[in-house]
Amino acid sequence: MEMVSLTPYASPSRPALLDGGQSTLRTLLRDIYQQLKETPRAIWNDLRATGWRGAGFILIGLCWTLGLITAIGFLTIQSSWSYTNYVDPCGLGGEFSPFADSYNWWAPRGFFQITLRTPEVSFAAAKAIDITWDVVIGRGGQAVLAWVSWRVFADSVTVSIATKPATYTSFFLVFLQKEPSLVSVYRISRDFIFVRGLCSTIATYFMVATMAFILGFPTFASSMTGYTTADKAYLELRDGKMYQLSNATPVAYLIRDGDRINKTVNLMLGITVHADVSKYGFFGNAKKETEWNGTIIPSPALDVEAYNLPPGGDQLFGYNWSDHTGQYPFRNKENATYYISGEIYTINYIMKNASCQPIRKVRIDIQGALPRMKALTEWTLKKFQWGFSFIQVTLMAIFLVIWTAGIYVMWLKAHLTLRLNGHPGTAQGWKCLLQLAEVMEKQLKGAGIDSKALSDPELKDQIRKLLESGSVSSAIEFSKGNYSFRRGFCCWLKRERWWVLSLFVFIGLLTAIPFITNTWLGFLIMPVGILFSISFGRAAKSMMFLLLCFLILYLVVVVPLFSSWGTTTTK
C-alpha cells in the first residue's frame, strides 16, 4: 500500500502573493507617513492664508454662534425644566402659582411679562440697567448688524449684477447709503418685488427681511426687557393676619397611628423626614418589627401615607412610588398641604386667599430729640427686578440665528465666487459713486433725457418709464461664473475622500468622549473644538490634526481638573 505524504503541496505562486502583499503594505505605510509629515505644513499654510485679521473674525464668529446656541439651549431647558413644587410662588411673571412646574412659558399673557428676572435691586439700579441695555445693546447692536449686513450685501450684489443688473435705487441703497431706514426698506422692497430683484429669489427676500429686522432691532431689544416690582407671596390666615408663604412648611407624610410612637394619632411630618419611610414603605405593609427615630415598634410597621410630593429625586421618598394598580397616588397636587402657625392649610384655601405683593423695605427717620421722639417719618422703599420676557428673548435668539446663518451663506457664496474669478473684493464708497454717475450719464444720454431741464420728480418719472428704473451692471468680469456649493463639496470629497472618512469617524468618537469620561463639561467643550477645527482648517487632514490636538488637551487638562474638582466638592 502506497503511503500518502501528509506534507502540504507548496504552490509556486504563494511567495509572489506574499511579496505583493508586503509591498502593498509598505506602500500604504509610506503614504501614511508622507501624509502625516505634510500635515503640519498644510496646517501652517491654512493658518497663514487665514491671517491674523481673518483669524480674529473667525474667533468672533465662533463666539457669537456658540453664544446663540448656548442661549437657545438654556431657554429650551428653562421652559421644560421640572421644578419642585415648593419654590417661590411669585417667581414667574408676578402671578401667584404655588406650583411653578405648571407655569406655561409660552402662554400669550407672558409676551410682555418679565419672566426671567435678576436679583432684587433698587429702582435707580433697575432704571440704569434698562437704559444701558437700550443704548449699548439696542443701538449698538443695530450698528453692528447694519455694518456686517451691508458689507455682505455689497459682495452679494456685486456678484448678482454680473448676470442681472440692479436698478439705480437698489445700487444706491446697498453701496452708498449703507444703513436701514423705513423709506429705504420700502424703496428697495418695491424695486426688488415689482421692478428687478437679485439673481437669487431667496437672497432677495432675505435681504429685505434683514433690513426690516435691523430697522426694528432697537425697539425689539427694548421691548423684551424691563423692570418690575419684586413680589412675594402672602397668605391671609384665618385670624386675618398676613403670612409670607415662603416660610410655610409643606406637609409630606401623615402617620395614621402616631400614638404608637407616643405622638398624636394623625401625626403630620414635614419634607425633611423621609429616611424611615423609604426603609419600611407605606400603609403598614411591612409585617415585621421596625424602628422609627430610635423607637422600636412591634409588627406591623407604622401606617404612613403621603400628601402631594414634589419631583425631587432622592430628596423625598414616594414621588415614584406606585400602588398595585400602577397609579402614583402621591403626585396629586390637590392634596398639597401646608403647616402654618400651628394650623393646617389646604391648597384650596391657599389658592383662594394668597396673593403676590411687592416687597417693601421700611425706613424710619427720627426727627427731633431722641428722648422725646415726637416725630417719625416713615419711608417705604419698593424693591425691583430687571429681566427679560421669555417669549421675546427666545424669538430674538431664533431671529439672530437665522440672520447669522443667512449672512454667512450669502457671504461665503459671494466670497468664493469673487476668489474663483480672481477678484480680491468689491468697490466701496467714492468708487461706487463714480461708477453709478458714469452709468447714469451714459444711459440718460442714450435715452435722450436732459437731466438739467427736468425737476427731480420729472427726472425720476422719466427714469422709471424710459429706463425701467435704470440698469447698473458689474464693472468687473466673472469669466468662470458663480461658485457652486454642490460642485465644490463633491470635488473636496473626491480629492480627500479617505481623510474625510477618517474625519467623520473621529468626530463621532469625539462626541462620545463626554459619555466615556463622565464629564458634563465635555458637552460644552467638544462642540467648540469641532467648530474651531472646521473653521480654521481647509484640508481634511488639517481639521483632523487640530481635532487631535484639541482631544489631547481635553484629556490631559480638562478631565483631570474636572475629576479633582468633583472629588473636592464631594468631600
Write the layout of secondary structure elements.
Elements: H1 14-80, E1 116-117, H2 123-160, H3 168-177, H4 182-195, H5 201-223, E2 225-229, E3 231-236, E4 242-244, E5 249-255, E6 267-270, H6 275-280, E7 290-292, E8 295-297, E9 304-306, E10 337-340, E11 343-346, H7 347-353, E12 354-358, E13 360-367, E14 375-382, E15 384-388, H8 390-420, H9 430-446, H10 456-466, H11 485-495, H12 497-517, H13 522-536, H14 540-570
Antiparallel strand pairs: 1-15, 2-15, 3-4, 3-12, 5-6, 5-9, 5-10, 7-8, 10-11, 13-14
Describe this structure in words.
The chain crosses the membrane at residues 54-77, 193-217, 386-411, 496-513, 519-537, 544-565. Keywords: Membrane, Transmembrane, Transmembrane helix. It is a single chain. The chain is of the alpha+beta class and 571 residues long. 53% of the residues lie in helices and 12% in strands. The chain has helices spanning 14-80, 123-160, 168-177, 182-195, 201-223, 275-280, 347-353, 390-420, 430-446, 456-466, 485-495, 497-517, 522-536, 540-570, and strands at residues 116-117, 225-229, 231-236, 242-244, 249-255, 267-270, 290-292, 295-297, 304-306, 337-340, 343-346, 354-358, 360-367, 375-382, 384-388. The strands form five sheets. Strands 5, 6, 9, 10 and 11 form a five-stranded antiparallel β-sheet that branches. It has a three-stranded antiparallel β-sheet with strand order 1-15-2. Helix 1 crosses helix 13 (522-536). The longest helix has 67 residues, at 14-80. It starts with 13 loop residues before the first helix and ends with a helix. The model is unreliable at 1-19, 82-86, 364-379 and 566-571 (pLDDT under 50).
